[in-house]
Specification:
It contains three helices and no strands. By secondary structure, it is an all-alpha fold. One of its GO terms (biological process) is negative regulation of DNA-templated transcription.
C-alpha cells in the first residue's frame, strides 16, 4: 500500500477513475451496447488497473529498498539496481 501522501492520493484518484469506468461498463452492458464498444471499455479498465498495480508496486519497491540519499558507492549501486527493477516491472505491467 502506498505510504506517502502523494502516492496515496494518486492511487485513490486512479481508483475513482476505475470506479467510473466500471459504472460506465455496467451501463453499456445493461443498455445492450455493441460488443466492440464493451470490449473497448473492458480493455480501458484493464489498462487502468494495470497502471494502479504499477504505481503501487513501484511505491512498495521504493519504500522497501530505498534509503536516504547517500554518497556510498554501494548505496548508489543499490539505487541503480532498484531503478532497473522498477523499469522492468513497468515494462511488463502495461
Amino acid at each position: 500500500m502506498p505510504h506517502h501522501p502523494q502516492d496515496k492520493k494518486r492511487a485513490v484518484n486512479r481508483l475513482r477513475r476505475i470506479r467510473g469506468q466500471a459504472e460506465a461498463l455496467e451501463r453499456a452492458i445493461t443498455d445492450g451496447q455493441d460488443c466492440a464498444a464493451v470490449l473497448q471499455q473492458i480493455a480501458a479498465m484493464r489498462g487502468a488497473v494495470n497502471g494502479l498495480m504499477r504505481d503501487v508496486m513501484e511505491s512498495h519497491l521504493r519504500d522497501s529498498f530505498s534509503h536516504e540519499s547517500c554518497d556510498n558507492p554501494q548505496h548508489q549501486a543499490l539505487q541503480q539496481k532498484l531503478d532497473e527493477a522498477v523499469s522492468l516491472v513497468k515494462s511488463y505491467i502495461k
